[in-house]
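Fold it.
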Amino acid sequence: MCVAMPAMAQAPAAEKWAPGEFAKVRRQAYDTVYDRVAYLGPYAKWLMEEVGTIITHDEQVEFEGLGSDAARNVFIQRFWARRDEKFKESHYERLKLAHSRWGVPGNRGFLADREFFYMIYGPADQIAAAEDHTETWTYANYHQPDGSTINVTFKFDANGDITPETNPFRKPKR
């Protein structure tokens, strides 16, 4: 589940999402992929829930093609060796914080929008809470994978779902 969405953050939305629709579509896509990798047993959880937001597409394809638990264990060791120990610790700390603050008990993966965006973008530079229980997260000078920087703002409704007005991702064409 390689997530390359942040690079699209400046693109204007072709259509607006209805409230909660982005989360619903994301959950359905997540469940489809999770079901596809269920044959991996406990390794599916590692792939989808632990490193799903940082694993590259090529790494995911390689991992899914491995034929034994021993090969998967070697892959996981190499995966973390390519990243430094500080990155690994930081990633798991952020994962723990995201789950404890915005996670949905009993659900698998990143089913809450704030949890999902936190894992992609990290802590916001500014969070403004409003009386209507909405939150606006602002990332100033967010560094994209290509090295460029943009300012990104997300607004979450009272349910924690991203609002249609601030969703930076295009609605998929049907």
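The longest helix spans residues 85-102.
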